[in-house]
């Protein structure tokens, strides 16, 4: 029964979110091109690659939820680093990587709650608040790990990400399953419905009896939660990091969400699209590497893709509107 | 015009905080009243003040420029490498290496700013996302550029003595040449924003893009012009950075993204546009410099606590202004 419900949702969703469908189309093209360029691909190589890519997919889901609620979370990148460092450093004192992972996710979710309260209950601008809390999170990451750490995680914990279920790597399943398990029940509840309503029109939602300032923090908490999960996976795949490295998760998660059809004006978008957007970006990067292009081109390409994905539909709409007028 | 309590608070508070912080700094480290340490603070304020000049312009129209940090780093590298490359050559090019470096950087800043403005106005992209996209593009480009600098030229060790002394030398007491130029330009900017038609247009666009369009103001032109100004300001700040550091790295501009926005916000300018100005932004920039280069250094506070403190300071000021302006609404 639940599968039929899901299928129906997917059909409805595909009709409502053409952007997400296009993102999956783009993903197939990029993936096939990458497969052709990578002839000697082994399952373990593919799995290792996936563990590197899935954190962005999770970050993109968190960012998508915040964008849908008409917000922005510029602390995403720092929260991921904070979570990663907590897992790497606290595994020792807590005697369990799983407890450390739980602690990491709790801390980033609390950070998200802090963001949410400041943005919606106090009414401060999301952009500056999350920029400031991003700085705070980066500071905490340095407090947790003043120096770069490596090799603190036991192999049993690390190997979890290398597990295969049949021919499919476990991480790849997690990339879809975790967001589905967390977001789907919320999306179908009153709170999730209210979140979409608040994102599409704050005033209308308020007039309809919803309380935007109570609903919106939920989006930031989820953003923190997914940042935490992404950080845990990062820790698993790298088993070592430095808190002071520049990271591009914030921009890339926004780009991924937008690529997946999430509107920057709020109210529209799907997490399934955001996941596809993330994989398009990471496979474009892998493709560039396979072509032996300098890795720095990836940044230029990501930026240009983002501009094109937002700009071209806008131009098309403008042209159509002009035609209607004349 | 009668000033409401909220307006007074917004105008006075940044300067009061600055004076208190400076007094705290002097109490902790008395030698900060002497000309030497003061001039270090002053040239740091100059660099931040120049970036914040562009930042405040775009924030006044309700925009934001997140690309400034990488524009600064990029122009830092370009100016250092152009000076380095040309200085080894004789003749006209060698004698005017600084001029060419500045011209190249201004051109880079203007092109990046114009691209920002065009993407925002012509492609309907939110300011924050457009400039964030530009941030990555510039990041990639500057890394590619860094790789292509000939190995024989070390961009990290060719400061122009003229540039260094322009930024750091003292002409009297603690005043540096760059700071005088900056203050003159700052006064011009403040007058332009307050007294000219263009300035009124900036505030009009900031308050409402729709209403200003109805009033016959070209929001598109205003927006593009202001982003070009922001790009050029960031580029010039990058050149000043070369003068103060006398070296270039791939992360020298990083902090200026948050700092320039913080300077504007600490100065009480509304992040939603239409309210505020450059005058109190100067106080905001000075607050950050006194805090970062002064207090945190003197107290030997590490990077971790610094990051946390910037964030907390910005949040606290936001809260103060938030409740200050609420009072303003009530007095209405």
Structure description:
The complex is a heterodimer of chains A (326) and B (332). Chain A has 326 residues and is mostly helical. In chain A, 77% of the residues lie in helices and 2% in strands. In chain A, strand 2 (164-165) and strand 3 form a beta hairpin. The mean pLDDT of chain A is 85. By secondary structure, chain B is mainly α. In chain B, helix 1 (5-28) packs parallel to helix 13 (278-298) and helix 3 (68-87) packs across helix 11. The longest helix of chain B is centred in the last third of the chain and has 29 residues, at 303-331. The radius of gyration of chain B is 20 Å and the shape is globular. Residues 327-332 of chain B have low confidence and may be disordered. Classes of the chains: A mainly alpha (326), B mainly alpha (332). At the A-B interface, helix 6, helix 12 and helix 14 of A face helix 6, helix 12 and helix 14 of B.
Please tag this protein with its features.
heterodimer; A: 326 residues; mainly alpha; ABC transporter involved in vitamin B12 uptake, BtuC; two-stranded antiparallel sheet; two-stranded antiparallel ribbon; 14 helices; 4 strands; 77% helix; B: 332 residues; 0% strand; globular; disordered C terminus
């Amino acid at each position: 029964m639940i599968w039929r419900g899901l299928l129906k949702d997917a059909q409805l969703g595909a009709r409502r979110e053409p952007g997400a469908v296009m993102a999956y189309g783009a993903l197939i093209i990029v993936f096939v091109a990458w497969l052709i360029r990578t002839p000697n691909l082994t399952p373990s190589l593919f799995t290792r690659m996936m563990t590197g890519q899935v954190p962005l997919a999770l970050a993109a889901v968190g960012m998508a939820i915040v964008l849908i609620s008409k917000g922005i979370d510029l602390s995403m990148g720092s929260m991921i680093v904070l979570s990663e460092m907590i897992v790497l450093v606290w595994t020792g004192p807590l005697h369990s990587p799983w407890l450390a992972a739980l602690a990491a996710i709790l801390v980033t979710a609390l950070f998200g709650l802090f963001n949410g309260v400041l943005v919606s209950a106090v009414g401060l601008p999301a952009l500056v608040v999350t920029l400031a809390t991003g700085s705070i999170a980066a500071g905490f990451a340095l407090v947790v790990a003043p120096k770069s750490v490596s090799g603190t995680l036991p192999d049993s914990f690390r190997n979890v990400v290398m597990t295969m279920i049949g021919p499919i790597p476990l991480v790849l399943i997690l990339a879809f399953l975790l967001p589905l398990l967390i977001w789907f029940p919320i999306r179908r509840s009153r709170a999730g419905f209210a979140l979409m309503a608040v994102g599409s029109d704050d005033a209308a939602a308020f007039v309809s009896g919803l309380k935007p300032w109570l609903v919106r923090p939920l989006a930031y908490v989820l953003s923190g939660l997914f940042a935490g999960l992404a950080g845990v996976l990062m820790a698993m795949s790298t088993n070592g990091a430095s808190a002071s490295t520049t990271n591009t998760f914030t921009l890339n998660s926004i780009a991924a969400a937008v690529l997946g059809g999430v509107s920057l004006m709020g109210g529209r978008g799907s997490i399934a699209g955001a996941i596809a957007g993330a994989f398009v970006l990471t496979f474009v990067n892998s493709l560039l590497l396979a072509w032996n292009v300098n890795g720095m081109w990836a940044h230029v390409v990501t930026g240009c893709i983002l501009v094109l994905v937002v700009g071209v539909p806008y131009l098309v709409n403008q042209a159509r509107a002009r035609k209607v007028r004349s | 015009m009668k000033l409401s309590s909220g307006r007074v608070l917004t105008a006075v508070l940044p300067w009061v905080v600055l004076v208190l912080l400076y007094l705290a700094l002097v109490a902790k480290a008395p030698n900060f009243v002497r000309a030497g340490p003061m001039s270090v603070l002053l040239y740091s304020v100059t660099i931040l003040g120049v970036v914040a000049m562009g930042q405040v312009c775009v924030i006044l129209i309700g925009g934001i420029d997140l690309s400034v940090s990488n524009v600064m780093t990029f122009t830092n590298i370009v100016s250092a490498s152009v000076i380095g490359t040309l200085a080894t050559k004789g003749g006209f090019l060698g004698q005017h290496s600084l001029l060419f470096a500045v011209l190249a950087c201004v051109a880079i800043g203007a092109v990046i700013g114009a691209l920002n403005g065009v993407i925002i106005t012509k492609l309907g992209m939110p300011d924050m996302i457009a400039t964030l996209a530009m941030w990555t593009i510039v990041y990639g480009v500057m890394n590619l550029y860094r790789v292509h600098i000939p190995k024989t030229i070390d961009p990290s060790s060719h400061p122009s003595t003229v540039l260094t002394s322009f930024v750091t030398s003292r002409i009297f007491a603690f005043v540096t040449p760059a700071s005088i130029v900056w203050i003159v330009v700052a006064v011009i900017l403040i007058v332009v924003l307050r007294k000219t038609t263009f300035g009124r247009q900036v505030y009009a666009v900031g308050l409402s893009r729709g209403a200003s369009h109805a009033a016959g103001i070209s929001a598109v032109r205003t927006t593009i012009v202001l982003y070009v100004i922001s790009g050029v300001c960031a580029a010039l700040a990058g050149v000043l950075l070369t003068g103060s550091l006398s070296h270039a790295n791939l992360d020298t501009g990083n902090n200026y993204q948050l700092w320039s926005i913080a300077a504007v916000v600490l100065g009480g300018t509304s992040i939603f546009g239409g309210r505020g100005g450059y005058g109190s932004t100067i106080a905001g920039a000075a607050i950050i410099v006194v805090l970062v280069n002064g207090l945190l250094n003197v107290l030997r506070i590490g990077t971790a606590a610094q990051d946390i403190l910037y964030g907390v300071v910005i949040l606290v000021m936001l809260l103060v202004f938030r409740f200050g302006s609420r009072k303003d609404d009530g007095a209405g």
